[in-house]
Amino acid sequence: MTDDLTRRRLFGIAGASAAGAAGLAASGCAAIGFGAQGGGGAQGGGEQSGGGTAEASTAAAYSAGPPFRTRPDLTPPHITLRRTGLGADSRYIFLNAPYSGPGHGGSYIIDPHGHFVWFGPNTASQHRMNFSVQSFKGEPVLTWFQGLVVEGFGQGELIIADSSYKIRHVIKAHGGQLADFHEFVVTPQNTALITIYRKHANVDLRPVGGPTGGHLVSGVAQEIDIATGHLLWEWDSWAQSNPHVPLRESYQKLGVGDGGHGTISSPYNYFHINSIAEVGDGSGDLLISGRNTFTVYRVSRKTGHIVWRLNGKKSDFTMGPRSKFFWQHHVRPAPSGRMTVFDNGVPEEQHSRALLLDVDTTHMHASLKKAYTHPGTQYRAGAMGSAQLLPDNRMFVGWGTEPHFSEFTADGKLLLDGDIIKGDPSYRAFTEHWVGHPTDKPRAAARHRTGGATVYASWNGATQVRSWGIFAGRTASNLHEIATARKNGFETAIKVSSRGPYFAVQARDGKGRALARSAPVKIG
Fold it and tell me: What is the pTM of this model?
């Protein structure tokens, strides 16, 4: 993925987004909600009437109005979800926006109905990418890359945060380089598998039409002990001792796209590492994806040697009909000798696909078990993308530079489709269970209205809130409860007859138990 390509896709995809929405309608998906929207009207949850128990009104269509009243500092991308049905165990959805349409880029969580749950905004020097839930020491954690994207790869560090959203570990690369965003896997051994792009000088690039003393970037996989930060293992696609992956395996043309020109300022990107995963058969071997070689490499953790190649120019497997892939991302082993691959496909194919492959290592043959494609618009992801096989064999797909994500049944029926409205794609998209316990307090805001006030309540990252208690009084130190309201979206708007002028909100769980209370605010 190149920085230029990403920016072009981010700011030039409005037409594609509109076409995608039309395709969704053709596929039979009905819009059931709106997502991480700004203010105006419903404020992400619709207004409710206070006085006793407030009832939720029907949510309006999304609005591109002002930011949340309670959190004007949070301006996430706009999301629209369409569903034909919920899966067996509906989960939260985890996305990232490396840049922004209007609003900030950052990492964010939405619930199964499209409501915004949590947003961690980017800063000028730290763009967040590759946001997901993983397990560390038996506990669910959030992980992401933060840094900058330079020459098509990341330069930054990798983050592990706990269920309170507090950062617990920062993983840094070794060898005088910064960590890349393409991969970050937390293993059952409490280690981190990460990617690096390493520059090499004095490389004979004449076989690809370049200079004799040229420059290239190789794909490096490192395994790092999370607790100590020590380097445990490293593999470099260009290291002579592996043996390295030769130039002739690459399909990337010099000077085309993000291939580079073979110079010190624009090195040849011949490999483009973008995925690492443990094979999971007890061998300790790893699956490493080289985008620009169209190949998945099984690499021995013990020796660093390549055990076999799947696909590409030197494939050790025969490839069955429609099983070949091109410019692929996000390779993962699957049960029963299978593998998932996000096949970007273009321009070699008409559209991108999420693949479930049968990989027979006895007869060295790969066959297509299932290909998941969008039934409406045929997305053509020039970069990025993910394919997540869920325990009940549903497939969750992030469409890379196409700013959309989808969920399918095992047999390929579309269950869910999501649009990132302003064309800000997510590097990958995942769906997972999550329980968030933020340590900060809920936020409240209040505005005048005829006959009383509208009180707004939110709590960034809290997943267990089911209702709000609303408190009012003439002084900030003397408030009493005046209403309760069902939580409705990220920011719930509640109409009350009281004029305050001071208000506070209390978050409550499904049994009505108090979780936390906001600071008092004066009506504005």
Answer: 0.89
